[in-house]
Structures are given as C-alpha cells and as structure tokens.
Amino acid sequence: MFKHVLHISRLSSVLVLFLVLASCNMPGARVEKVAGELPPPPAGAWIDAPLFGAEAPPGTPIKVIGHVDPSVGQAMLYINGVNSGLPSAPILNKKPPAYEWEWIPGQPGIYDLRVGGAGGPLSSFVRVTISGEMPFSAEFWADQTTLKFGECTSIHWKTENALHVQLQGVEVKPQGDLGICPQQDEMHVLQVQYKDNHGEELRINITVLVDTPTPTTTLTATPTLTPTRTSYVPPVVTTIVPPYVPPVVTTIVPPYVPPVATTIVPPPPDTTPPPAPNGLLPCGSSRSKPTLVMASPTNLSWYPVKDASGISQYKIVLTNINAKQISELYTSSTSYSVNVQISTYLWQVSAQDGAGNWGPSSQQCYFYYDVVQ
C-alpha cells in the first residue's frame, strides 16, 4: 500500500514539472514572431465618384476620383476592362492616397469604370451610362465690322466639341480672340471640324472706310465786253430856213454780249492696272507645305481689290498638279467654289478694272484635298 502511494506521488511531481517546463517554452517574443509571419492584408482600391448608375450626354467631362494603394504601382483608370491611358493627378492630403482623372466620353453607350495599379487588384466597377446626342456649336464675331482707316478691332470665336479649329488656315485653340488693325477690307474665315468628323466654315467681313478726294471742275473765264453808249444829239433847227426840218433821231443799238460758257475738262483715261489681290485662302506657302482642305467643292476666297475705275471681274488660274490640268475661271465675286479631286493644287487670282486693265497675279498658293476618315 505504501509503495502505491509513493508511486502516485512521483507521477504527480513529474506532471507538475512538465507543466512548468511547457509554460516556459511560450514567451511573449514567440507570439510576436508568429504574428509577424502572417501575410499582410490585401491592398485596397475603390471609386468615390462618379456614383454607380450615373448618366451624362456625350462630350461632357466626367471627373473620376478613386483610391489606389501606392504599393501596387502607378494608379490607372480602366474603362470596359481596358487601360484608358489617361494621366492621374494625385489629390494632396488624402489618406489613403486618392487620385483624379478627367474622362470625356465620345460616343453613347454603357461604360464600366475601375481603378487600380499594375501590380494589384482592381476596384469594383462603377457603371456609367452615356446617352443623348453630342452638342456641336461654333460662334465667330467681331466687336466692330466697319472701321475708319487706322482704327482697330478684335475678333472672337468659341466652339463646342471641336476636333480641329483653323483661323485663316492656321490651327488655333477651340476658344480665343485676336486683335486686328486692317489697312483695307478683309475677310476672316474660321474652319471647324467636329469630333464626329463633320465641319463648317464661318466668315466675318471687315470694311475699312477710306476718304476719297472729290473731283474738281476747271472753269475757263470768258472776257466780258463792256457796252458803249452814244450820246443823244438834239435836232438842229434852222429858223432862217422856212421849210420844216424834222428832228434827227439817233437810235442806240446795244452791242452783242455772248453768253458765259463753262468748260468742263474730262479726266484723262485710266491706264493704271489694279493691284494684285491678297489674303488668299486656302494658301500653303509651297508645294511641299500645302494647306489641307477637307471638303469638295472647296471655297477659294481673297480680299477685294480697290481701283479708281472699279473692279469688273477676277480671273482664277487653277492647276491640278497631279493631273497636269490648268483651268481659268472668272467671277465678279471675291470667292469661288470649285470641285476638286484628291490631289495637290496651285492657284492664283488677278483683277480687271472697269477700264479694262488687267492687274498682276497674286502670290502662288498651294492646297491639298483628301478625304478625312
């Protein structure tokens, strides 16, 4: 009996020693090491704006605001599963980091937007519906269209959803203004090509008033004759002679005075030709740098020419360089619409005054017509 009790006592001591040793094998440092070996939480990405189900018409700028953890790489905007390539602008003092994109949808449809990085997960998608028609408009105006010689004015333009805007054949911003001080009548042309590839052309005519001298009339003086008057001679009465002598009567005849004639000297005939036209559009400076036109028929235009005898007509010499064809066209206007083919063209214009004098040709202008897809 005593031996059994001693054996149980020894077993209890061994058990207590085991429990003490087991407790010594689990320090706090071991807990921290196990926690440090756990995988990090997944990086986050989500969209704050626009909201799911948002709607907008085509061409309306949409601001996309999203959060992307910088550990997954550069923040990107995906549209219908494809990287948009739009630049991201970081929003300062935002935690977690936030970014902003400006997206301008061009066509109606349903678009799913997601944000994320190249090395991490993408956010849940936000669905945006683009519906309706894209608005297109263009305005072109001047502060004053009639000026005195030496005065200045400003021209302005404003477009909506334009792809290309050209003023006098030079690419300009969709909205702007320009100050001008014309020395003669001018025509300014604004060409607009919209994002759906249709286009239009707007014009402003600026008139410059120039003082014209009044013609003078030369009068030739005619000498005036002074009339002479004969004094009256009373009759001679002879009382000695008995016969009656009638009185002698003198008749006074006034001299003939011719009328005063006014002689108008006609001006000499006009033999001076008019100047060469300028302000041609479209006008590239050389064959290697022609101006691109996007419509047929194409409108050729230039500034009006002034001459003392007036302008009776203009002659256009149009050369199709590729086909080696030369055409002569006549008009009394300062513009002419001509059908063109896909080719490079050279053209010049000259003016004829009312006296029949032909002036010199304008500068050589080049343009190229092609179908823009």
What does this molecule look like?
- The chain has 373 residues and is mostly beta strands.
- 9% of the residues lie in helices and 38% in strands.
- Strand 16 and strand 17 (199-209) form a beta hairpin.
- The protein is elongated, with a radius of gyration of 50 Å.
- The model is unreliable at 1-9 and 11-42 (pLDDT under 50).
Task: Label this structure with key terms.
5-stranded mixed sheet; Immunoglobulin-like; 373 residues; mainly beta; 24 strands; single chain; 2 helices
Strand arrangement in the largest pleated sheet: 2-9-8-4-5
| Structural class estimated from helices and strands | mainly beta
Under CATH, the homologous superfamily of the largest domain reads Immunoglobulins
Instruction: Give the N-to-C terminal Cα separation.
Output: 110 Å
Report the strand count: 24
**Text of the CATH class of the largest domain:** Mainly Beta
Bin the strand percentage: 35-45%
> What is the CA-based Rg, rounded?
50 Å
Query: Main sheet, how many strands, which sense, barrel?
Result: 5 strands, mixed
**Second rung of CATH, namely the architecture of the largest domain:** Sandwich
* Individual helix count: 2
- Predict the CATH topology of the largest domain: Immunoglobulin-like
Count of domains = 3
What's the overall average pLDDT, rounded? Answer: 82
Q: What's the shape? A: elongated
